[in-house]
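Researcher: Quick one. three chains, 1041 residues in total.
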Amino acid sequence: MKPALSRRHFALALPSALLVSGCAAPHRGTGRPRDPIVLTLLSHYASGELKTALQGPVDEWNALHDRVKVQTKAVEFTDLLTTFMVRQAAGQGADILHPYCLWNGQLVQAGVLRPAPPEHAEEIRRGYGTAAVGSATVDGNVYGYPTEMQTYALYYNKRLLREAGVDRPPRTWRELEDAAYRTARRDGYGNALVQGFGLSTFDDSTTVGQTLALLNAAGGRFVSADGRRTAIDSPAGRAVFDLERRLVAKGASDPGVNVYNAFASGQVAMVISAGWWTANLKALMGKGYRDVGVAPVPLPEAGGRRATLSTGFMLGVNTASECPREAWEFLRWLNTEKVRGATRMSALQVSVGSLTGRADDMRTLLGAGGDPNLHPFLDALAYAVPEPNVPGAQQAKSLLRKNIEALWTGQQSVDEALRTTRRQVDQEVSLSW
Amino acid sequence: MIRRRFPWLSYLLVVTGAVLTVVPFLDMVMTSFKGPDEAGTLPYRFLPKAFDLSNYRAAIQQLDLPVLFRNSVVATALITGSVLLTSSLAGYALAKLRFPGRDFVFRLVLSTMMFPPFLFFIPHFLILVHWPLAGGNDLLGRGGAGLTVSIVALAMPFLVSSFGIFLTRQFMISIPDEVLEAARIDGAGEFAVWWRIVVPQTRPVLVTLGLLTFVDAWNEYIWALLISTANPEVMTLPVGIQFLQDYVDPTRTLPIVMAGLVLSILPVLVLFLLLQKHYIRGVMLSGLK
Amino acid sequence: MVNATLAPEATERAARDRSAAGVRGRARHRRRQAVVAYLFLAPTLLFYAVFLLLPLGFALLLSMSRWAGFDLGDIEPVGLDNFAGLFADGSTFLAPILTNTLLFALGTVVLALAGSVLVATCIDKLRFQGLWRTLYFLPIVTTVVAVGNVWKYMYEPGGLVNGVLNTLGLGSVAFLQDPDTALPAVVVVQAWASVGSAILVLTAGLKSIPESYYEAAALDGAGAVTVFWRITLPLLRPSLLFVCITQFLTGLQSFALIIVMTRGGPGDATNVAALEMYRQAFSYGDWGAASAAAFVLFTVVLAVTLVQLWLFRRKGEDA
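Model:
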């Protein structure tokens, strides 16, 4: 009885395994030409509105297509890179991956991502802004369709600036510092009541994101053009570190505070952050959101060339996928086919308060009214510098963040911070090549 | 002993220490009853506003608890069963059977305890992935997912315990040879001797070993995390609860996480309280955990 | 018994026959026993081959290779480059990662030892010893996920620890967010979780100190403090040493608590060698560097283990 039972279990398990199998798991697929295909898609759209936003178009595709079905899988963003790597190593990588572009160099070098076929690469180069294409490109090859795009700009609290006698957002670093010192207020014990400029050790985007946005605005770069060395130990890098150190030393910034909460409750006058934050602020601040303004990242001198940081995600196809053609076809349908004047991906991103690198879609979707605060982020798509995506970029970013934090807390001088960053990042990046 | 007066200072110290030990557990239980706007807000309050079970219901719902529970139980049972079996078999051979190479094997068992587990972490994973003829692999272990598709992956690296072998051997040495000899003269084979005489006689040590192994296996986190990352279908309780947390807004999910934690530590806690004599003896025998 | 009734020569012959048969029988018996023994040992030896010997060789190979991809055929030998990389200028492995590892282990030992010595000596004088020991033991049977999360929450601004600080009129501390306090904060938790087993070992050590020593001290009119320093501590030395070293070894290797509480952050403030190994392998795909890091840490662990063996062997000779 027992063996029979277990054989029946086996027989039952087999077809269900086939149903849920991804093409990336060749041992479970049948491989026969007309059999159903299930493409798996792994992203960090794990919960809340992001999950529902992605599920919409996927359900639409599944309703429209009989043979090729798409199944979404998700993990938290903090686990995403490890999940890619571990599942790949375990031969269970998803067919379609949604990596943060910072990791593209690493994923390409490890042989996880498949270069886009020429016709798709062509379509991507044509349809998206340079920063978006740059993020999805490694060594001259395009590896996927850029999706969520974030650019950095200056958020400011109109009321706080006005009360301090500043009537327009700063355009130069001198104006920025001036406004920061004038708005900053402390109580008798030295606790910050209002921070002039929010430098916060809270997460990557409040440390590295802000610093790189300022660095790019000063014409500097984090990593050299060939991607093998850091370029932050430069006059531009020194200027940014000097500025941040001064803001902390003179009491305009308080790095220990969670700037996301503090700005929303009117305790921070200015902060540089990414576009996704507008949606959060709206939800958090309610009526108070009227006071929030957004302006381009200030430049060191008036009349310079605008620049800021852009970060992003993309959808690429796994080298281990057994059905790359179907996967690319789905991605084209999702990312470039237009419905009511915009692609499904653009509509999806805008619905959750983000942007894509398709300027035309963004104008269509945001043009009619919408939040004016989103426009500076949209404008920045044209001049933003993509976050470096060389192999080892994630490690380099962590090292930079650590040194910035040490600079802010006074554990390192500007000189030390620049030198240590250069030494550590050079060593790390050289290992990764 | 000097017990001239009431040792109030000692009481003070021990009770303070005990409170410090227990308070985090109480805080966990209290938080598991708090509403979403109660946890992590200022000012801190120890007691929840009301004791209702909604977080427990949410935890059970969001966690797919039956599956996590089943995975934990299967992995723990596999490990405990295998450790008990292999330890008492090998322990018996090393204690009571005479054969060439016995000293060498015993030294081998002892020396394996010097290798720390983290050293094997990466190779164990790769060995399971490239296990021949499993999970779509060919004879050379290429092409598929290997044993990582299976729940046995959770148990594989823990199936034999050198400490368990050592422990059972030390106990079995004290069984008188005459008893075994008598059984052999009665025509019992070695297997029967082991099963009918040695195993019953060493039951206490096996209970201790089983309990130690059970607790360790139930609480194992790092390996289970890795295997669950590769294949979420075999996720265990501790890993599942850790994944339940919302990274962006941890305070929102906190009470639910705490409820899940209370549920997950209950089985071990109950077992420990029931059998703590055996467990504590095991910790003594193993020196320290 | 039967032999006694037989004639002497018959007895002799029977005995000779039997012993010859006995030698043959014993030889056969011994051979059979060897076969059975190896049969009993087979699962264990097989396990050692697959999960000990093979992985050791594999880890050694990886530590001296560069392996970018996921195909075993791509392993490319690079000699000692991975080790050189760990100790190169600008590498964070030596400082802060390895120093963090040592500080974590050392801090845990100091705290757990101090706590367990205090509690163990006091418990000895109390009623309900079993109850106290059970309470102190709870953290040991609790999964690290529970321990880590509860403490993580207690360290938050709205958590219990800061709640107590605020009640005492002190300001909140961002324990796990501040690079200066993060490592000590994690050390406290690790010590909290391991103090129970240390108490157990020390209690056993205390019980083995002969009562007569205390009686003699009491006759001399020695105070409690003198007794503690002059009698209890010296005689407890073997147990203390044992707790120290085992706890130190555990501290060098553990990173589950750190993964749960801080993931090594902020920055590298709580990053330890075993966690770095995990991340290099499973997040960054640098299996070579990860394996090299594992072997460096193994060398440290081995050195401590050998010191332990040496100390205890010497102690054994003293006794």
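The first helix of chain A runs from residue 2 to 20.
Researcher: Thanks, that's what I needed.
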